[in-house]
Amino acid sequence: MGLFTYRFIEGLTEAEKQARRRALDNYGLAAQLSDLLPVVLILLYRLTKWVVRERVDGSANGEYAAVPSSPVMKKRREEGVRSWSVRKRRLRWWLGEDVVAAGHVYGQRDQWIVGVVWFLWLAVLSVKDTGEDYLHLTKRFGIVAVSQYPLQYLLSLKSLNPFSYLLKSSHEQVNRWHRVSARVTTTLLFIHAALYLNFYIQNNRLYRLGVPLVLAGVVAFFFLNLMLTTALRPVRRFSYRLFFITHLLLAISIPFLILFHAAPARPYMIQALLVFFVDLISRKMDTVTGHAKFESIPGTNLVKLSAAIPHVKINRFRGSPGSHIYLSIPAAARATFQDPTSISHLLFEFLFNPFTVASVGEQESEVTMIARHNGGPMTAALGHYAVLAKQQQQQQQQQQPPSRSANSLSIPDARNEGKIPLNIEGPYGSVTHFPNLGQFDRVLLVAGGVGATFTVPVYKSVVAENPNAKVKMVWSVRTAGDATWALLREGLMDDENVQIYVTGVTEGRTRGGVWDQQQQDGGEGSGAEGTEMSRMFRRRSGSNSGGSGGGGAGGRFTSLHNRQRPDLRRVVDEMFRHGQEEKVAVVVCGPEEMARELREYVGVWVRRGRVVWFHKEGFGF
Ligand SMILES: Cc1cc2nc3c(=O)[nH]c(=O)nc-3n(C[C@H](O)[C@H](O)[C@H](O)COP(=O)(O)OP(=O)(O)OC[C@H]3O[C@@H](n4cnc5c(N)ncnc54)[C@H](O)[C@@H]3O)c2cc1C
Ligand SMILES: NC(=O)c1ccc[n+]([C@@H]2O[C@H](COP(=O)([O-])OP(=O)(O)OC[C@H]3O[C@@H](n4cnc5c(N)ncnc54)[C@H](OP(=O)(O)O)[C@@H]3O)[C@@H](O)[C@H]2O)c1
């Protein structure tokens, strides 16, 4: 007995087997080609929008002056367009809301809706024309699932991601759909595996699980589940490395196992591997080695690193403020502080951490990043280099030849210049796909902590393009020192449109214990900049007004010892109160909680029909 009306049909003729094979191949292909449908729909939508805009512009130019002639008709038409636009905006906003269950966020509504529709469509393709043939149904789920692999891999690409261009988005944003695709295909493969298992059990053929061809499929399925489990948010939070290394290795091995397991799946697996490796090659070609200077920021666990990069590349950074790079440390730079045969040395081969380019040199070909030591291996290494740079500086000041302390890191090749070679891949990011922020009536940029590495360059570029732009940046930091790099060095010190809230204590941070110790060893923690910041904050807190975090001074800045966050609801309401017709852009980069809260407050205005462009910078929310 099979499943419902399905039967185990024995003794099919060769012609019947051929027909089944053809049906399997055709439906696999149909499933893959149907992936193009959303692409076509998006392009059609764009085309329609463009045509409509052309017509409206034409009308504004007088081409359509006669249509409609009556002011009543014209008003009615405008109202119709407006109410349609409001509905569309509300729907788009609603689709972007988080799906929360038991206090945890499980993606956004659009991901769930697309995921369910996508799954149902593929399930239809898996069932259609399978008759009563249980094995046909079983195999169909398999072939339809693997037909999605090329798309799934395409959606995960960093460098050559076609969807980034199509959706005008960064690869991080596109990655949301990679996750949806992975869940859909794994569900289909789960059904495929379950149906086969049922077949083996009911026909006393469990021994077949040991046959190499079948075993490859079983192992692939096990790997798939391992991949999905290690990609879960709690695991990623526990160890990003565990997720990353498992994901990478399994992403390469699963297609090879499936290649061996099922011949009809080969074209799809080859396509998936091809796009994966082509992207990898492109990423390698786009990686440059830059020699970096390190500096620790007093009283914080921040490291400032400025890396020289080739002239040919610098313009790409200049053209995309707020972009980020993937940083890795070449073996040469870590040879002397790590045993080359150790596990941690090997681990570094898999470290590609994203950091935002906080500023790009105007004269020199140099990019600057500000990195917070988060306790992980990459930021710990950056912290080590900063401590070492400080020690070298002190030694030079004392006119002593540089020496190695017992546990110090040594700077390899570039030691004489005090610079460390770093591999820099990028730039990446969504800024290149941003609308022109200058076209908005108001722009609100909100940053939390080191998230300002994104908002500061965006702020500066908006102001540079249009000095009269109504742009406001609200930045919440734990300590005054966290803002030094931008206020003292990026010229934001006396900028009235930049509001800073200090929510914690002024003393050095305690989160990165190791780092604090190293800072002390390196003699950091109370430099001139720290003193300058304290003075500046006192000065500004006494002279400004308007924010919620008033502290004792009642100003835009909190009292240095007063833990108070910016009142984001108030900030948002103030931004939107100026005029019903004003278009507002809101950009946030910082802790997830901050971004979520801000979205909630902005949502109130979207529901009231306001034109809002909202962007939450980040990854893996
Ligand atoms: C687009 C982007 C830009 C960022 N810019 C900055 C910045 O300018 N300054 C700053 O201090 N921090 C920034 N971060 C956060 C920074 O990447 C992590 O704090 C850092 O990688 C942690 O490294 P670690 O060695 O301490 O810990 P790890 O264990 O290596 O990583 C800890 C966390 O960092 C994130 N992470 C690490 N590697 C990756 C990766 N390849 N892709 C995506 N996320 C990863 C994950 O959330 C992970 O859980 C940014 C993050 C993103 C996604
Ligand atoms: N391009 C990017 O995607 C990018 C770039 C850089 C950083 N980041 C991310 O940005 C985050 C910054 O981390 P960090 O360690 O630097 O931050 P942090 O030091 O913890 O500072 C965060 C600040 O924001 C405040 N805050 C948090 N939630 C808030 C809310 N709901 N309303 C108002 N204020 C709020 C905090 O106040 P309290 O002190 O009261 O908590 C604190 O002042 C990280 O998650 C990092 O990955 C992303």
TrEMBL record:
Signal sequence, renumbered to the chain: none
Highest taxon above the source species: Eukaryota
Transmembrane segments: 180-201, 207-228, 240-259
Composition bias type Gly residues, residue spans: 544-555
Subcellular location: Membrane
Entry-linked SUPFAM superfamilies: Ferredoxin reductase-like, C-terminal NADP-linked domain
Biased composition (Low complexity): 391-400, 511-521
Ferric reductase NAD binding domain sequence ranges: 440-602
Zinc-finger found in the keyword field: no
One Pfam family cited in the UniProt record for this chain: Ferric_reduct
Domain Ferric oxidoreductase: 141-256
Positions of the UniProt region annotated as Disordered: 390-413, 511-560
Keyword tags: Ion transport, Membrane, Oxidoreductase, Transmembrane, Transmembrane helix, Transport
InterPro entries: Cyt_b245_heavy_chain (IPR000778), Fe3_Rdtase_TM_dom (IPR013130), Fe_red_NAD-bd_6 (IPR013121), Ferric/Cupric_Reductase (IPR051410), FNR_nucleotide-bd (IPR039261)
Keyword Transport attached: yes
UniProt membrane topology term: Multi-pass membrane protein
Feature: compositional bias, Polar residues: 401-410
PANTHER family assigned to the protein according to its UniProt record, in alphabetical order: FERRIC REDUCTASE TRANSMEMBRANE COMPONENT 3-RELATED, FERRIC/CUPRIC REDUCTASE TRANSMEMBRANE COMPONENT
Protein name, entry field: FAD-binding FR-type domain-containing protein
